[in-house]
Amino acid sequence: MLVTGGSRGIGHAIAAAFVAGGDRVAATHRSGSADDVPAGALAVACDVTSTESVDAALSRAEAEHGPVEVVVANAGITRDQLVLRMTDDDFAAVLDTNLVGAFRVVRRATKGMLRLRRGRVVLISSVVGMTGSAGQVGYGASKAGLVGLARSLAREVGPRGITANVVAPGFVETDMTAALPEQTQDGYRERVPLGRFGTAAEVAAVVRFLASEEAAYVTGAVVPVDGGLGMGH
């Protein structure tokens, strides 16, 4: 299996969970060191904004581990700003990484899955893609777009035994949330019915389920892992 953005945060936890389950895992990284990916995973350099880089990353994963039967498109960026101050470049960069980048990865990965007549595609979206968030028009648009991508893909490749699903995390304990002022963190927690942030491991557990045989009849779904924050959306 291959997970993009596997060197930190949610992607790191997903890759680590599959390694712990005995799977052969390739985890991509764009910046930083190959040592940042979980122990036991194959570290693969990849920039999802480049078709050539994506192709090279999948080719290396296939050469080392064989056909990629599970792909998790997790790589993403944020460039938050109020809409009147957001530049074309910032908006385009977020979509190119979060949405078009996922498309590049899925397009390349499903090539092998179609030959195998089996496979699992999981796209990591966000509660923001469902509920919206002030100052995140680019991020929200990119994450909402993943739902349309996954559902169209599910209809297209379903007859070949390939599923495509979306996981939509809410507020999750990461380095980014830890850096927020305590007052801001408390305000976020008050909006969550369960009264706490989620963990990256909890997101990873849902991804593992969607990649399993137990989820063979689940496709085109959006699974929230948000403590109830986005319920009804």
Write a structural description.
- By secondary structure, the protein is α/β, with parallel strands linked by helices.
- It has a single domain (2-225), classed as Rossmann fold, CATH 3.40.50.720.
- Helix content is 45%, strand content 14%.
- The chain has eight helices and seven strands, in the order βαββαβαβααβαααβ.
- The chain has helices spanning 9-20, 51-65, 88-116, 128-131, 137-157, 175-178, 182-191, 200-210; strands at residues 2-3, 26-29, 42-45, 70-73, 119-124, 162-169, 222-225.
- It has a seven-stranded parallel beta sheet, sandwiched between helices.
- α1 (9-20) links the parallel β1 and β2.
- α1 crosses α8 (200-210) and α2 (51-65) runs parallel beside α3.
- The model has no long low-confidence stretch (mean pLDDT 95).
Total strands: 7
Contiguous uncertain segments of 5+ residues: none
How are strands sequenced across the largest beta sheet?
3-2-1-4-5-6-7
The sequence of SSEs as H and E is EHEEHEHEHHEHHHE
SS-derived structural category: alpha/beta
Helix content: 40-55%
Distance between the termini: 30 Å
Supply Rg. Answer: 17 Å
Keywords: Oxidoreductase
InterPro entries: KR_dom (IPR057326), NAD(P)-bd_dom_sf (IPR036291), Sc_DH/Rdtase_CS (IPR020904), SDR_fam (IPR002347)
Pfam family, one: adh_short_C2
EC number: 1.1.1.100
